[in-house]
Specification:
CATH architecture of the largest domain: 3-Layer(aba) Sandwich
Oligomer: single chain
CATH class of the largest domain: Alpha Beta
CATH topology of the largest domain: Rossmann fold
Number of domains: 2
CATH superfamily of the largest domain: P-loop containing nucleotide triphosphate hydrolases
Structural class: alpha/beta
Strand content: 15-25%
Order of helices and strands: EEEEEHEHEEHEHEHEHHEHEE
Largest sheet: 7 strands, mixed
Low-confidence stretches: none
Helix content: 25-40%
């Protein structure tokens, strides 16, 4: 690195060691540095709270190592991934860590979800050594009760990726202002680059190639599926409704198993408290438990969120 001091954005310095250092413009105060070694390997350093500005696809080299404020500005990684400046083999080192995230296992889990890792202060990093790069989970199920923080946890896992498709299974409810407020809150906290699809037709989306999917949530998908097969009526349920629902669940489970997209799915965890007073309520509770178990069986990572704390059940 050059001696401390402000280097004009875009200026490139040649060092006696054969390295080239270029100042990178940020979207916040501070300067980033792109370092190219004599052997052509590239390292990008981003300052705290900053993300690169003015990136264009194809105009930015691919970096072998990125040191960034992964927790404070996960969208910096999304910007780099969007223009091809990061790939699966890029070693992402989380720096500028503070007390926003608890140390230990929780920090490791949070960073691994976006393909990053942390190292102790003073560690010597060797560019090109990739054995410690965590694999980003391809399929994740996030479970939790009402207001547990499960949706926030699911969204956090994809903040570092561009062009996420947010699949809302709840749809719109005319005249329900409280529901509209909930939907608005969800929408406002999502990154502006994400797209939204309101649908319960999940199988075709899982079968397509494309950007990561965030499905919120499977419990509302199940409500729609049970509506369509007449599951709330005992007669219709016994006359084929149960069989039709089982087939719908099998189709969805198979689609999750075979999808090539990165997937984060959210579902409610119910049945741990009071037994529903009606047969239809108990039926829904049982079917949601079966659905969650089936989808969890196809996911590399399964999390249970309780009081805002994520507990890893698998992965």
């Amino acid at each position: 690195m050059p001696q401390p001091g402000r280097v004009p954005d875009g200026r490139e310095l040649a060092l006696l060691t054969g390295h080239r250092v270029r100042a990178v413009a940020m979207d916040a105060p501070g300067t980033g540095y792109a370092v190219t070694g004599p052997d052509g390997q590239r390292v990008l350093y981003l300052p705290p709270g900053g993300a690169p500005a003015g990136l264009e696809e194809g105009a930015v080299p691919s970096y072998d190592m990125v040191l960034a404020d992964v927790v404070g500005r996960p969208d910096a990684l999304a910007k780099l991934r969007a223009v091809g400046a990061m790939g699966p083999a890029t070693d992402v080192i989380a720096v500028h860590l503070d007390h926003d995230v608890a140390p230990g296992a929780e920090l490791v889990r949070r960073l691994a979800a976006v393909g990053a890792r942390a190292v102790p202060d003073g560690t010597t990093l060797t560019v090109g050594v990739y054995e410690d790069v965590p694999d980003v989970p391809r399929r994740t199920l996030v479970l939790g009760g009402a207001r547990s923080g499960k949706s926030i946890e699911a969204e956090r896992r994809l903040e570092a990726f561009p062009d996420v498709l947010y699949v809302a299974t709840g749809g719109s409810r005319n005249g329900d202002t409280e529901w509209a407020s909930r939907v608005s809150t969800h929408r406002e906290r999502r990154p502006g680059s994400w797209r939204t699809a309101e649908t319960c037709d999940l199988v075709p989306l899982l079968a397509e190639d494309g950007p990561p999917l965030l499905i919120d949530c499977l419990s509302l998908w199940l409500t729609d599926a049970m509506d369509s097969v007449g599951a709330w009526d005992d007669t219709e349920w016994g006359d084929g409704g149960e069989r039709k629902l089982r087939e719908r669940v099998r189709e969805l489970t198979a689609a999750v198993r075979s999808t090539r997209r990165t997937l984060v799915a959210v579902s409610n965890e119910v049945g741990s408290g009071i037994v529903p007073a009606t047969a239809s309520g108990r039926r829904y509770r049982d079917e949601l438990g079966r659905l969650n178990a089936a989808i969890a069986g196809e996911c590399e990572h399964v999390l249970l969120v309780v009081a805002g704390q994520a507990l890893a059940l698998r992965g």
